[in-house]
Structure formats: structure tokens, C-alpha cells
Amino acid sequence: MDTATAVQQLAALDSGVVSRQVLLSCGVAAEEIERAVRHRHLTVIRRGWYDAGNSDPAVVAAVRSGAVVTCTSALARRDGIWGVPDARLHVRRSRHLRTAHEQCSAYRPLPTPRRAVDPIPEALACAARCASAEDFVAICDSVLRRPEWSVGDIAPLLIRAPLRVQRLLREVDPRADSGIESLVRFRLRRRGIRLRTQVSLPGVGLVDMVVGDRLIIECDGKRHHLGQQFGKDRWRDLVSVADGYLVMRLTYANVVHQWDEVFPFIRAVIRRGSHRDRCGKLSRSG
């Protein structure tokens, strides 16, 4: 692989920005870095940090200020990890560069930043302190969907965290299909509502969660509004209702922006007892 390709691939891991330390540690020689700068394949952002093109302006701005992107902002830039809806850019700096500017920190010392977007362990350690309980659980759910991660990998990151944070790992469930599913599960269980997740129903397949015996709650991400998936979901709803179930479909907006208006509908069904199979006619499943 030629140097230019190697540089581009390394930078692509972190939104188009790469540090000299990373380049050197991956076998790119110092003279090759200087040559890339001369040929304008790399643009110096600040000493030891480079823009390789097609970069994220927010990441470039963070690095220019002496920081790197971390916490929920870094996690949202990793494929498949729950992106907390937050307009702020979460950053951290090396100890010797710390200023009065607001920044994220963890419950334990973190290594000096080498990458423009913090790797998952460092970002997760910061999120444990910064994110809300429900968002942290949703983040952990999504991290644990990666085959290389387990609860045993997350627990050491929280050793110095308060018990209330460490105990959140008990509420994690990597079977959740999406961040909004994680949020709904967390919120309902915190209200004492008993439910089962990823339940297999005959003729229907897996549903996100079942409250009581017959209230199905499905959480639809963007992909559910597209083409064949939309049609499949509606067909599943028809089968579910014909079998005696109630179906509620919640969108991203319902969960993230309209929960205070949506939850009373769920509560009304439960208070009325409509989530119970009083006639014992439903097919039982896991």
C-alpha cells in the first residue's frame, strides 16, 4: 500500500483528521509525512495534527483549539452506536492544554489524546460521567452489539464511577435493535412496567417488546420508513392484530421529542388492563 493511501485510510477512521503520532506508530515515516504536507495531501491544523481532506469541520475546529472530540460526540461518529441528540460538541484536552473552556472528563485518568475522535473506551468513559442514565444505557446497548465488546470490557471503565453509574450495566440489553428501543425499555421499566424484549411470535417473528400479554411496542428507526421494510412491518401488524395483539409503533420523534405526549397512551392501555390476555387465547412464545 502506498503512503498516500495509508494516510487517507488512517485519517478516515477519525473524520478525516490524523495525528503525527498515529501516522508514525502505523509505519508512516517522518519524511513521508513532510512530503505529504508539501504535496498538499495533508494540511497542518496545528503542530502534529493534519487534515487529510473530506474532513468533518467540527473535528477540525476541535483539534485547532487544542482538543479532540470525545464522549457522546465521538460515539455518535462510530458506526452503529447510539447518537445522543445533543447539539453541543463534546471535547477533551491534554492536561497541559486544559483551559477554562468547558470540556468532558472521566471518573478516571485518561491517556493523552492521540486521535482526533476518541476511541470507544475513552469516549465511553467520558459518557459515563456526562450522559444521562437512559442515554448511557442506550450507548452501552449499541456498543455491546459489536462482537468484540462485552459487559466485562465496559465494567473496568467504570471502576471509579459512583455506584449509581456502575449499576446501570445491570439495565443494559444488547439485543435492542436501536437506541430508541433502548430508551423506551429503560423508561418503562423505571416506571415499574414489566415487559419482555425481542419476543418471537408465531407468524410474526421478533417484536421489540411485549408489555403484559398482548401489547406489542415496536420502535421504528429511519430504515423502517423505507420501501420493503415499511410494507413488511405493516403486514406483521395485520397478523399481530388478527392474533389478538395490540400494536403501538413509535417513531424516533415519538421517543426523543414527544415522549411526554406519547407515554399517556401507553399508560392508558395498561390502566385499562387491555394489555392482559383475559381469555387465554393468545399463542405463548418467548
UniProtKB/TrEMBL annotation:
Location of the DUF559 domain: 177-269
Q: Which InterPro entries match?
A: DUF559 (IPR007569), Restrct_endonuc-II-like (IPR011335)
Give the SUPFAM superfamilies listed for this entry.
Restriction endonuclease-like
Q: What is the source species?
A: Tsukamurella paurometabola (strain ATCC 8368 / DSM 20162 / CCUG 35730 / CIP 100753 / JCM 10117 / KCTC 9821 / NBRC 16120 / NCIMB 702349 / NCTC 13040)
Q: What's the name of the protein?
A: DUF559 domain-containing protein
Cleaved signal peptide residues: none
Transmembrane annotation, as ranges: none
